[in-house]
Amino acid sequence: MGITRIMLIFKIFLPEQWKVFTKDGRTRGAPVDISDGYIHFSKASQLMETMSKHFSDYEDLVLAACKTEKFSTDLKWEPSRRGQDFPHLYRELLMADIEWHTNLKKKNGHYSLPEGVNEII
């Protein structure tokens, strides 16, 4: 019998967005997500570039991890930066979808991912 691997994907929140999300228990995402019609996620290997490209002006972020298996057909893998496939969620994100989260703080002008962040669990 083979080993079943579960994939994690990651959503980056500004602290105020996270606060509203935890209060409401659901979110349609950031303004860019709402405008695009889906919630943007990244694989672990895409996180540093995503933070650099879209979050470099912020000192604090919240990183949330979700298992792809929770999203069924609402999750689509679509090409974005340099043709890389990125996960896009075509429904609201629920607090029940979150496996874990952590606060990220910029140090010396850069973010560091927590030890052990990877795509497969």
Describe this structure in words.
The mean pLDDT is 91. The protein has 121 residues and is of the alpha+beta class. The strands form 3 sheets. The protein has a 3-stranded antiparallel beta sheet. The two termini are 17 Å apart. It has a single domain (8-105), classed as Protein of unknown function DUF952 (ADP-ribosylation fold), CATH 3.20.170.20. β5 and β6 form a beta hairpin. The protein has helices at residues 15-24, 31-36, 47-54, and strands at 8-13, 26-27, 39-40, 60-67, 75-79, 85-89, 93-94, 98-105. The chain contains 3 helices and 8 strands. Helices cover 20% and strands 31% of the residues.
Give a nutshell description of this structure.
With 121 residues, the chain is α+β, with helices and mostly antiparallel strands. The chain has helices at 15-24, 31-36, 47-54; strands at residues 8-13, 26-27, 39-40, 60-67, 75-79, 85-89, 93-94, 98-105.
Q: C-alpha Rg, in Å? A: 14 Å
Supply the CATH superfamily name: Protein of unknown function DUF952
Task: Please identify, by name, the CATH architecture.
Answer: Alpha-Beta Barrel
Helix content: 10-25%
Poorly predicted ranges (pLDDT <50, ≥5 residues)?
Answer: none
The percentage of residues in β strands lies in 25-35%
Structural class of the secondary structure composition?
A: alpha+beta
The CATH class turns out to be Alpha Beta
